[in-house]
Amino acid sequence: MEKKVAVLSVYHKEGIVDFAKALVGLGWKIVASGGTARKLAEAKVPVMDVSDLVGGGAILGHKVVTLSRELHASILADPNSEEDVADMERLGLPWVDLVCVDMYPLEEEIAKADCTLESVIKQTDIGGPTMIRAAAKSGRIVICDPADREWIIQKLKEDGDIDLGYRNQLAAKAERVVAEYVLASAQYRSNGSYVGFIGEKVRQCKYGENAWQADAALYGMDEYDPLSLENFELIMGTAPSYNNYCDLDRLIQVITHIYRGLAINYNMELPIAVACKHGNPCGVAIGTSDDAIVTLRSMIAGDTRAILGGSVIVNFPIGEVEADLLMTFLTENGKRRLLDMVIAPFFSKTALETMSRKEDKCRCLENLALASDLQLAQSPRFRQVRGGCLLQDNYTKILDLRRSDVVKIGEATYQQEMDMILGWAIGSTSNSNTITLVRDGMLIGNGVAQQDRVGACKLAIMRAQDSGHDTEGAVAYSDSFFPFPDGPEVLYEAGIKAIFTSSGSVNDKEVFAACKEWGIIVYSLPDKDIRGFFGH
After folding, report:
1. Is the peptide bond before 433 cis (omega within 30 degrees of 0)?
2. Residue 144 Cα distances to 136, 236, 286, angstroms
3. Distance CA 430, CA 280 (A)
4. What is the rounded CA–CA span in Å between residue 152 and residue 143?
5. Phi-psi bin for 44: left (phi > 0), alpha (psi -120 to 50), beta?
6. Which residues are CB-neighbours of 234 under 8 A, at least 6 positions away?
7. SS3 category, 458
8. How far apart are CA 54 and CA 66, in angstroms?
9. What is the pLDDT of residues 131-186, one digit of tens each?
10. What pLDDT, on the 0 to 100 scale, is given for residue 1?
11. β pairing state of 272-277 and 200-204
12. What is the DSSP letter of 531?
């Protein structure tokens, strides 16, 4: 029986020697190009240089190596075609059964700040993508991800071959890898006129936002981001729903903004607890030390009614005591609180036992990055609209009260400034228009998604008072400027003592003069620089 033939041509040589040795051990013949052939030969792996197959070495300064009719005939020939079989016999060409190829580092080159069109073109691979697609088309075993090498060797050892189902999966991955590669080039060379997104299904949802939206799933596009949703491990409860994933994304936005706001303004890392309901924060608190218990109590006390059935994220481990607090603190007669999700860096076994409930509906998700790597998302945000999508930079603006251009009416205390930062982090990740009320490191009222700013003020106050909070002495955050003094007047009548807002209204002087008269401390920065709209 003729030996099966594998073509190996890789830019990144790590692990290729071991892979080739494993194939040789299974009786395969290796054909490799250029640097790959040299690497294998140096390691004493029997290898034929592709130049011996195609009748000549690399030409045009190594631009053309594997682009030959002989090699591609060996990859594309159909063993079920009499014509193809006859041509292969007449030409004396081998049948290639496996293609292992990666490509020049085009995307890495594009990511460099000093890349040029010339450097990008130099790193644009032609032969690699062509071989990958040829192998995918012809149903060969095609490998473009080093992670697949080990299991393929294992399957070959066990079964002697790779079946059609696995080959099709590998072909689909290969097409995706080439598509991403070509898309990166198109986006770069068009200066962003062309854009696209390619994701991989990583989680299936039971259904969409509503039960009648039957087809819903989470697609991953950046597994290397430690806070990508796919990197949160479900350790208890039923699989997250479409709505759960939406809430998780919002929770991550909120907690990372709080973390970065504290880091930039105070160089602090404090315990943080955030509760969201229907995508908006309803309970938020930061600790003054590393006391997670106080933080949880303050977060829950923010709005005990809204948190029912909500989702919670924290940046500290959940043990038995923390779990019991989440389930029973401020509930009637110690009854268990229903929570949809709890997300933390780590859960103890006793915590999970405390939080489990009938039918396992309380979902617990772990991600160690929550304890140490709360960085803001940097990738662009896109939103589907009818006939296309909207694309914008991510929400990466951080309120920095140390800036010399902060306009101040009065001087806030240390705690009031910290509450401004917390209010900003909450309000700028809540659906606009938003007025957020904070006192002593704790959210007491969030007036979100209102059509007018006065209405947002009234809603924030109502929610605070309805939850039993005294608004006297609280700090308010406004996600955009006040067009008239009527909004601040509502806050003044509720006892608000300090406000952070943007400036940019034609009536700024009137608004700020009124605040000064009422004794309200105001900090502001230009609306065009610090407006906190979110979630339109």
Report:
1. yes
2. 11, 35, 46
3. 5
4. 9
5. left
6. 240, 363, 364, 365
7. helix
8. 8
9. 999 999 999 999 999 999 999 999 999 999 999 999 999 999 999 999 999 999 99
10. 47
11. unpaired
12. -
Each residue's pLDDT tens digit, 84-139? 889 888 888 889 999 999 999 999 999 999 999 999 999 998 889 999 999 999 99
Q: Within 10 A of 325 (CB to CB), how many other CB atoms are there?
A: 20
DSSP state of 109: H
**Per DSSP, which regions of 119-166 are E strands?**
141-143
**Nearest CA among 91, 130, 183 for reference residue 7:** 130
pLDDT on residue 88? 87
Phi-psi region of 330 (alpha: psi -120 to 50; beta: other; left: phi over 0): left
- Note the pTM of the prediction, 2 decimals: 0.90
Evaluate whether 232 touches 366 at the Cβ level (below 8 Å).
Answer: yes
Residue whose tokens read 């070495």: 57
Cβ atoms < 10 Å from Cβ of 334: 9
The CA distances from residue 174 to 129, 215, 405, in Å, are 9, 25, 52
Mean pLDDT of 42-64: 73
Calpha distance 83→65 (Å, rounded) = 27
* Total H helices, total E strands in the chain: 19, 21
**Tell me, what's the pLDDT at 59?**
55
Distance CA 323, CA 334 (A): 13
Neighbour order of strands in the sheet with 435-439:
233-236, 363-366, 341-344, 311-314, 272-277, 280-286, 442-447, 435-439, 475-478, 498-503, 521-526, 407-409
Residue 208 identity (one-letter amino acid): G
User: Which residues are CB-contacts of 246 (< 8 A; sequence separation ≥ 6)?
Assistant: 209, 279
For the chain, give the mean pLDDT. 93
Mean pLDDT value across residues 316-338: 93
pLDDT digits (tens, 9 = 90+) for 277-303: 999 999 999 997 778 999 999 999 999
Q: Residue 69's pLDDT band (boundaries 50, 70, 90)?
A: confident
Reduced 3-state DSSP string for 460-496:
HHHHHHHCCCCCCCCEEEECCCCCCCHHHHHHHHCCC
Percent of the chain with pLDDT over 70: 97
d(CA 469, CA 472): 9
d(C-alpha 366, C-alpha 226), whole Å? 12
Taken in order 302, 303, 308, 312, the sign of the CA dihedral is negative
Cα 271 from Cα 411, distance rounded (Å): 27
Residue 61 is predicted with a pLDDT of 58
**Bridge pairing between strands 311-314 and 272-277:** antiparallel
pLDDT at position 258 is 98
Are 237 and 256 within 8 A, CB to CB? Answer: no
Name the token pair of 9. 């041509």
